[in-house]
């Protein structure tokens, strides 16, 4: 199996509710030359890539499949499944970049089948990023940052994989503010942001919290699960919830899922990520 591609990576590892810690190695990224390389099918990932590039003054590189993924969502899924079953990666259009010029590379992609999209898998198969600092960012329907980072570490074992950023397509309007916070928190951009508290210990959900969970998740096209316990935190602009729910994975197996929900001041509840 090719190193940049993990078959059916939708079987994910359950992660806890703690926030990510800033990596000490990020401090040097502000002084190094950065590249934002990304694949975007619908334009969602491109918008995040452009925001990162704008804030950092970084170079950008967009990769594309030689045979583009066009047509309906269903057509893309059908083609992707066929390529995965046949262990085939799409051939990329030629691109011109001197990787040696960059110490820190932001790697952007939409989530397909629980991991990075197949064109990004092709890039990771073609290029050895040994010694580079890789910063993943992604867009998704429900989640996939954590599972794609796990696959990225397997695909590029000699690279340093740093904290990543992910955003739901439904919350793309929130991305500019979130990206800026992410870059400041992780040392890529000067500035100050509010320190986020830890989530409280998990407690059995109340009827009110179940109603809030359903309000946040009920409109999603796939059932996300039944909440069992919840932890909370309060910031100056929101109340955030970390639900542990009984759910099912892509194969229909019963699993626990961590589902993050936020209620920003004056707005309705939204779920931000599902981690199975």
Overview of the molecule:
This protein has 276 residues and is of the alpha/beta class. It has two domains: 24-185, Rossmann fold, CATH 3.40.50; 203-275. 25% of the residues lie in helices and 26% in strands. It has helices at 44-56, 73-85, 118-126, 145-155, 175-185, 207-217; strands at residues 34-38, 59-62, 104-112, 115-116, 133-140, 160-161, 165-168, 203-204, 226-234, 238-248, 254-264, 270-275. Strands 1, 2, 3, 4, 5, 6 and 7 form a seven-stranded mixed β-sheet that branches. The protein is globular.
Short description:
This protein is of the alpha/beta class and 276 residues long. It has 2 domains: 24-185, Flavodoxin domain (Rossmann fold, 3-Layer(aba) Sandwich), CATH 3.40.50.360; 203-275. The protein has helices at residues 44-56, 73-85, 118-126, 145-155, 175-185, 207-217, and strands at residues 34-38, 59-62, 104-112, 115-116, 133-140, 160-161, 165-168, 203-204, 226-234, 238-248, 254-264, 270-275.
């Amino acid at each position: 199996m090719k190193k940049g591609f993990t078959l059916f990576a939708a079987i994910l590892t359950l992660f806890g509710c703690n926030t990510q810690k800033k990596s000490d190695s990020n401090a040097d990224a502000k002084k190094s030359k950065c590249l934002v390389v990304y694949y975007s099918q619908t334009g969602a990932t491109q918008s995040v890539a452009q925001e990162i590039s704008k804030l950092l003054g970084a170079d950008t590189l967009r990769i594309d499949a030689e045979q583009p993924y066009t047509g309906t969502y269903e057509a893309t899924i059908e083609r992707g499944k066929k390529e995965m079953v046949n262990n085939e990666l799409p051939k990329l259009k030629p691109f011109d970049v001197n990787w040696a010029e960059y110490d820190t590379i932001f790697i952007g992609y939409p989530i397909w089948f629980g991991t990075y999209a197949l064109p990004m898998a092709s890039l990771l198969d073609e290029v050895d990023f040994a010694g580079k600092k890789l910063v993943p960012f992604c867009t998704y329907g429900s989640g996939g940052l954590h599972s794609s980072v796990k696959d990225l570490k397997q695909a590029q074992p000699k690279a340093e994989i740093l904290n990543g950023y992910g955003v739901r397509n439904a919350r793309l309007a929130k991305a500019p503010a979130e990206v800026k916070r992410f870059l400041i928190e992780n040392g890529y951009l000067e500035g100050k942001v509010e320190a986020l508290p830890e989530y409280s210990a998990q407690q059995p959900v109340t009827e009110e919290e179940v109603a809030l969970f359903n309000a946040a998740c009920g409109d999603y096209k796939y059932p996300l699960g039944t909440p069992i316990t919840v932890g909370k935190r309060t910031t100056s602009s929101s109340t955030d919830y970390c639900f542990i729910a009984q759910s099912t994975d892509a194969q229909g197996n019963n699993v626990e899922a961590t589902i993050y929900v936020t209620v920003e001041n004056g707005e309705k509840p939204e779920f931000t990520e599902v981690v199975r």
